[in-house]
């Protein structure tokens, strides 16, 4: 089955987003201990695709060794996944573009892995501020990318953006099915 990977800095709202997308109240639980949960969780959605929950990155207080380990773990994942269709990088909509996220997108691009951006916690900003932050982000991306990746504005607490993300994935899966049946 096709896989879609979700990744982002710790505390970006990944567990909440996954709970929203999978209609579960509390399953993708955050561990209170950064760097502890180095496990990959798979959720099967509609019997048709896997949502892959990758551990959060960017803990300020972990050692160099565990940062290295983490990088290895993540690169191992991305190198091995035959079924991976796309990654989604989660970004807190309130924050300015962060080097660690931009570097990660760079890595995905260089590895030939398609990705989209999911802005989280949109309920924390007024609509005008959302537009401004998204535009600023896109401008930053255009410094290194020719095109702006697909992006989604979401809020797990206000249930915003769920259908956009699910429809996007559903459409790709349909295309894949059609190609298979040709
Ligand atoms: P993770 O570490 O990336 O899995 O992040 P969590 O999903 O555990 O969320 C981190 C914190 O942000 C928690 O306190 C959540 O309640 C909060 N949070 C997550 N999503 C949203 C959102 O859409 N809106 C608001 N206001 N807070 C959120």
From TrEMBL:
Pfam families: MMR_HSR1 (PF01926). InterPro entries: G_ENGB_dom (IPR030393), GTP-bd (IPR006073), GTP-bd_ribosome_bio_YsxC (IPR019987), P-loop_NTPase (IPR027417). It comes from the Bacteria. Keywords: Cell cycle, Cell division, GTP-binding, Magnesium, Metal-binding, Nucleotide-binding, Septation. Residues 1-175 form the EngB-type G domain. Coiled coil: none annotated. Its cofactor is Mg(2+). Necessary for normal cell division and for the maintenance of normal septation. Belongs to the TRAFAC class TrmE-Era-EngA-EngB-Septin-like GTPase superfamily. EngB GTPase family. This is Probable GTP-binding protein EngB. The lineage of its organism: Bacteria, Pseudomonadati, Bacteroidota, Flavobacteriia, Flavobacteriales. The gene is engB.
């Amino acid at each position: 089955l096709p896989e879609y990977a979700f990744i982002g800095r710790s505390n970006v709202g990944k567990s909440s987003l996954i709970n929203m997308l999978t209609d579960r109240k509390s399953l993708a639980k955050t561990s209170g201990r950064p760097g502890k949960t180095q496990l990959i969780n798979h959720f099967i959605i509609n019997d048709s695709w896997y949502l892959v929950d990758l551990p959060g990155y960017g803990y300020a207080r972990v050692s160099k060794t565990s940062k290295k380990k983490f990088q290895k773990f993540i690169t191992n994942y991305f190198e091995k996944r035959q079924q991976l269709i796309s990654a989604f990088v989660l970004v807190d909509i309130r924050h300015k573009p962060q080097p660690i996220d931009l570097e990660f997108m760079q890595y995905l691009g260089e590895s030939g892995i398609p990705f989209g951006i999911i802005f989280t916690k949109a309920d924390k900003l007024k609509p005008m501020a959302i537009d401004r932050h998204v535009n600023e982000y896109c401008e930053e991306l255009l410094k290194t990318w020719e095109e702006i990746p697909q992006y989604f504005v979401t809020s797990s607490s206000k249930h915003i953006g769920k259908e956009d993300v699910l429809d996007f994935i559903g459409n790709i899966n349909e295309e894949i099915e059609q190609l298979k049946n040709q």
